[in-house]
Amino acid sequence: MADIAGPSFFIGRGDDSLISFGSGQPDMPPPPQAFDILKTYESFKYGLVQGEEALRAALCAGYPGAQAEEFVVTNGASEAVDLVLRVISQPGGRVLLPRPYYYSYPHNVALAGMTPAYYDLEKGKINFDTFAKALEGCLAVLINSPSNPTGTVQEVDTLKKIEKLCAEKGVYVISDEVYKDIIYVRENYLLHGPRVVTVNSFSKTYAMCGLRVGYIYSQNKELVGSVIEMKTHTAMNTSIVSQMMALAALGAPESYVANNLETWKARRDLMYNGMKEIGLDLWSPEGAFYVLPKFKNSGRAVRELYETYKVITYDGAWFGAPERLRFSYALDAGKIQEGLRRVKEFLGKEYASY
Questions:
Q1: Sign (positive/negative) of CA torsion 328, 334, 337, 341?
Q2: pLDDT for res 351
Q3: Domain range spanning residue 19?
């Protein structure tokens, strides 16, 4: 019997018999422009720790009024979150996280020498009054919209209230917006403020996960400088080849992102409607590419789906949501349909005896 203690058990695992609803990795290719530069690219030396200037200048187009020196290019969004937390860390510092949360957040906070604090989302949404009460005594908050694992997008009015409250209290806001281009209900709202740090990457929008290009954007010059200094002594520069591929991806036609969004919408509808039809309780995703249906005895369900039905899912307990499972729909329609067929079979057999 498999000992499935966390997501690491499944990462990199798979064969033709498996249907993986676990991966948060887009299955479509990056834009061809990203590959085209490799035909003539010849620079393989160290690069600027802050990130190649051409890429940082190009990123400004997505952030009104931004300047290239307000960005730091990182090894994916993961390094961005880690560096920011370690730079702002204070003894006894508390960082407020939503629950459910992305499974790495509590570990990121603890590894930065601080303590996670939590508030509960309501059907994936922030209740501002609940948030405001939980904020007392916190050094920073981490906002993730669109969310992994809930698939929800926070209301603009709520985000504006959070901006105002955190500015008044001098609290850092780390806004993880890696799914900002995969929103089905509205345009992305960019959080603003003197202590706001935006985290993003090329992994989801441009399907470039393995190239590890992320970045932070902040108008807080002192924080940006501290991040650069820390990165100097840890990872140094992010791969300059990957950065140039990312720069080329930014030059892809707008249709690349728009067409991918239509694909995500179709898969969302297929996944959500299919799960409702087989009797699962869930809310419809507004962004990203995850659903979080209810499952009793979620740990047992994860194990039996994998061992007996060759279906990979992630236990909601890993995200602070016990009695739910996270399903990713980052796979083609045929595999989604076959996976749902297997889940339906599981619901009618082993699960029925829980």
A1: negative
A2: 87
A3: 7-29+255-353
